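Co-fold these.
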Amino acid sequence: MATSAPGGKAAVSNTYQKARTWLLLPSWLVLGSLSLIPVILMLVYSFLTKEFRGGVIWDFSLSAYDQFFFDRGLFGDEPPTIDWTYISIFWRSFWQAGVATLLSLAIGFPTAYFIATRPVRTRAIWVFLITIPYWVNLLIRTVSMKFLLRDQGPLNEALIAIGLIDSPLQIVNTNLAVQLGLFYSYLPFMVLPIYAAVERYDFSLSEAAADLYASKWVTLRRILLPVVKPGVIAGCILVFVPSLGSFLAPDLLGGAKNYMIGSLIEEQFKGNAGNWPFGAAASMILLTIVLIILIVFAQQQSRHEQARV
Amino acid sequence: MAELTAKLDVRSYTGFKAVTLLCLIILYAPLLVVTIYSFNASNSIASWDGFSLRWYVNVFTGPESTKFKLAAWNSFVIAIIAATVSTSIATLAATGMIRAGKFKLHMLSFGLISLPLMVPEIVTAVATLIFFNAIGFDRGLTTIILAHIAFCIPFAYLPIAARMQGIDDTVEQAALDLYATRKQVFTRILLPLMTPGIVSGFLLAFIVSLDDFIITNFVKGAGVETLPTAIFGAVKQGIKPNIMAISTLLLSVSVIMVTISYLVSKTDKTT
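Predicted complex below.
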């Protein structure tokens, strides 16, 4: 994702040219059958008819997509009107992921900048400190967040103890809890690409700006920010995209009212009441949105690369 | 004087250090709180009754210990198999991508390898479930292992490929000139040089497999639990002190493994 395609710029070595097919075959077979074909099958399933005990009947049908976008009344015989139920769940997911991304940017940018301007020796340690929490199990991190934020939890107790509030704030089961959970889950993803971009930044540009009497904030906004913009966008995407389809944070921190795409999809497959074609259709819509975001991003990155050359 | 140099230094911004410290506090506070409360003597999570190891004893000998031990064993077996297989596949793939000249399907192969990183986890979970359903494969431990092998490949591949790109191919050329076979070059020269990349690739794949909840939850058979699915099931009924002890143990495993990976990569002089 954030790395450039290996093999791009380095001198082309061809020691194993003859064995290439055999070397790549295992990865083609495994990923072809367990990643690519499943996604294609999912597309097929989204056009099938649902089986009531879960699973599908192999009859072509558009009902999954129809159910997603339109309301045809209780008996399905009224003229279709736009059904906002599922669209609004997607909208809420966008909103929640967006707030989490902005929060991460607000904390992540200064952090990344600070780390990138440390002496070379200590940078690796700072980066290491930022990455450790990412490698801790996401479920455990989300549970920890819930433990911290709950009504009688340490955060509320601390706030009461210092006299900031009188009674506990209800954070768990609100939109805010989900936003904080997503922010917490993916914060390291914001820091790392911005750090990489600032580290490559040539500070003599800022010095030139300072010599020409630009204030520090003007220098940051007008000189540094345009140069490190690809890193900032990469960070935003790395937080936004996984937040959009996340399941654990909305499920554990949000409660029933703060439904997101992940829970909607999960519900279609777990237990017996689910609707597989509808779940497949919702997954296809999510996947399409994510791929569009990634393609636009990739194009922008390559345009930026060209502008620099 | 100090004020003057601070003004002249175009790099530092007031407040950025404070935000960095805040960032670290945010990242670590929830984990520290859970770690501290895992040593709580109290029966409830709401109050602190002094230091005790009773919940750790409970994890290993308490009424739920059989369930969690089996789940931990499953998680461990799945992670070992998935990490070993995906690291082997990734090592071969990296050799094919970086040591086998230019070819037409290069971008396509790289796209395929990074596919599990681009597709949202919940979508991979749905797609894999549908795949096993369509081919009539009964869900159980095997389906979990197969799914894990697939999504671990990019995590193993990236550090291995990064390492391989750092290795100058003149060493291989020299060995070939001295009549070493390609197989000998691979096992005696390339593999030893790649070890740091392979070790970090393996460790990352291991942790990613150990951590996975969503995909496992979709493709596991009824009654088969891994540690994350067992913890999720327990947490749904409320956070209990034994869950905090298990969480702290699992958290320590991750931290130790990442630290090893970091130290191994520090010995890597090529990057």
